[in-house]
Amino acid sequence: MLAGLIVSLSNASLAQQMPNADLSSELNTALEEHENSPDQLAQSLKFIYAKAILDNNLYIAEQALYLRALNLLYAQQFDEYQNWLAVYKSFYRQHNNAKTKFYIEKLELTRLFYQLDSLSLIQRGEALLQEYNVQDLSEKTDQGELSIHITDIADVINFIGLAEQDLGSYDSAIERFTNALEIYERSGDKEKVAVVYGNIATVNAAIGDLDTAMEYNEKSIEISLVEESIYGYFQNMANQASYNISKKNISSDGESKKFYRNQAESILLDVKNDDRLEQYPRIKSDILYWLTYLYLDDGNLTLGESYLSDLYKSIENRGEQGYLKQVKELEAYLLLEKGNFNKALDIYQDALSFYLDNKKYDKALVTLQDLIWATERQQDHEKSIDYLKQYVDLMGQVFNEKRAQVLAVEQEKNNAKLREHKIALLAEQNRSAELKIANRNLWLKMSSVIAVLIILIIWLRLRVKHKLSEQYQKMSYKDALTNVGNRLFFHEHIERELAKVLRARDRQSDQRLALIILDIDHFKAFNDQYGHDAGDRVLIEFAARLNSSIRETDLLARWGGEEFVIAGNVSNQQETSNYINRILTAINSKPFYIAGKKHSISCSIGAVAYPFFTEAEKEPKWTSLLTLADFALYRAKNTGRNRWCLFENTGIKQHDSLQAIIDQKVSVEQALLSKQITAIESE
Ligand SMILES: Nc1nc2c(ncn2[C@@H]2O[C@H](COP(=O)(O)OP(=O)(O)OP(=O)(O)O)[C@@H](O)[C@H]2O)c(=O)[nH]1
User: Does the C-beta of 637 come closer than 6 Å to ligand 1?
Assistant: First the structure.
């Protein structure tokens, strides 16, 4: 149909019949008049485009093209958008210029944003900023040679920030928003400033800093009021209510709970009673959603039920399956409160299947929490545990996927430091990462992410908490990449292992504990040559081989980077050597297959066996022993790598000798020379 339109537009005789209106003001009028009716705006833009082509007014033609495409994206009509984009591209081919290319790509970024394809958005957005050499934004002016509006560049930065937020790269997102904010402020684009304040608020809410979220959201509300941006005002008010609800849920004292609850209620009722809300059906639904939620949570089932029925009406014919499922889950909550377990469980189960089919894992996680909670209330502990298992599995899966995406994002920025920081942050904060992941995505489409938090909190209140905490605990002991223990895990268990050995010594048993540090050889070179992903796979395989070469009762942990530690029981020196040999062989005796290629990977090993001092060290520090093992590792590295070195005590009997060596009062070399320590090494 559009193709037909273009053909008829190029008909010159038609051009002569068209009135030569002032297209620019026509465009502005259309934008003002049809601000709230996308269909009419679409029609007007089509006409304006047609007239502009006939008048050969390329400037207006392009604006109409761009706005119409944007309009289709806002309306989520992606097929029609693609058709229209094709028109825009053909326009570009005819009037090839860098500015048009920029705006076409900006449209594509908008599409990726609406389709939640955050990774592509970041890649293409970065490429766009680079292509247009937007390095020193402070130098860029609206009068630059491309005459790309500076705020359009800020829009791109803002989009990248939203995508990063979507993927859980919260620090980067804040950085982008701050950058965009500075540009909008400089250009005096107040509405955009308000939008960015709102974005900064949502990131803060996602990481659980509700006070900052509320502060930024307030600023956004203030500006929206001054600028008379009703949509922005309502949206922010809905957000503000949800932040208050979250604050209420995490407050421990009754006074604060009441305060935040009342704040939320008054905001929601204020907006609900505003006639202008009718123009914004999506926000109206959000407001009704939170009102329903608030009253159900109060235990006021009558009011909750009545708002629920309004909510259903408000989303009738909207055909948004995802939103509908979420509303149904509110209904399930109501059913549970009324004791109708089976129907509630059916709803949750149905929602779960839907989310899993559509890969909406965040929501699936929340629904699984509901299912755990519901089955627990039903006293069906077996089912509850089943759901709990599903929950933990899914959480691990999501976590890994997100981690991979975050890595890709960071690689895109080619900022290794930031990337490692992120990995470390993610790995060490499994629990908070889980919350962040669960909170992901939803803000971008609706202000319901706080529901995650709220449902989580209600559910915690209903005592399922302790079971999950156990699982969280387990997960927080795991290294996210290799799935073996992490430092925390090692710290938690090593004391117990030492105590066992000490007790054995008291019984005159010769049981010892070998403390072993392993470090992959030339790993940096491997990373540099084959890439970080391949390096990651080496780490995973390396850890797996270590795991299968030790006994189940031994401790294995990733100490950091490409360093691992093992603590295993041994009896005499020969057995210790055999034990370490076995581990080294597991690594270097057969190649690693990474991405279909063979690689020889080796490692160096440093070890000590405890008790290191046969007669002293009543209260030994395992950290000192580990430091000594590190010296042994250093020696193994220095004497050629792919080997091991074990430090044995031969002469020291003083209580504080080990610490003295570590503290360099007596250097390790000296101790070796004077044979206080013996180094036994691989052949
Ligand atoms: N792929 C990947 N690399 C990592 C990870 N953590 C640390 N590294 C890399 O491991 C490398 C460690 O390098 P170095 O400490 O210089 O040691 P090396 O190259 O192994 O050399 P030697 O230990 O002396 O044999 C660095 O390049 C880190 O970036 C990770 O999680 N994944």
Answer: yes
The whole-number pLDDT of residue 403 equals: 59
Query: Could you give the 3-state DSSP secondary structure of residue 665?
Result: coil
Q: How far is the CA of 661 from the centre of ligand 1 (A)?
A: 28
- Which is more confidently placed, 251 or 578? 578
Q: Please tell me which residue, 317 or 540, carries the higher pLDDT value.
A: 540
Q: Which of 22-36, 253-267, 440-454, 496-510 has the lowest mean pLDDT?
A: 440-454
Distance CA 543, CA 161 (A): 35
- Name the residue with higher pLDDT: 611 or 474: 611
pLDDT of residue 487: 87
> What is the CA(526)–ligand 1 centre distance, in A?
8
Q: How far is CA 674 from CA 628, 631, 655, in A?
A: 16, 17, 18
Whether the complex's predicted ipTM surpasses the cut of 0.95: yes
Is the pLDDT score of 433 beyond 80? no
Residue that has been written with the tokens 């010594």 in this structure = 505
Q: Is the pLDDT of residue 436 over 70?
A: no
User: Which of 71-75, 431-435, 678-682 is predicted most confidently?
Assistant: 678-682
- Distance (Å, rounded) from C-alpha 169 to C-alpha 161? 9
Query: Which one of 3.40.50.460, 3.20.20.80, 2.60.120.830, 3.30.70.270 gives the CATH number of domain 487-681?
Result: 3.30.70.270
Q: Which residues pair with 569 in a beta bridge?
A: 513
Task: Give CB contacts under 8 A, 24+ apart, made by 115-118.
Answer: 115/78, 116/166, 116/441, 116/444, 118/162, 118/163, 118/164, 118/166, 118/167, 118/405
Q: Identify the residue whose C-alpha is closest to ligand 1 atom 29.
A: 524
Domain boundaries, the chain: 1-96, 319-476, 487-681
Strands of 551-626 (E only): list them: 555-560, 563-570, 592-594, 597-599, 603-610
Architecture of the CATH domain 319-476: Alpha Horseshoe (1.25)
Q: From ligand 1's centre to the CA of 207, what distance in Å?
A: 30
- Global pTM? 0.52
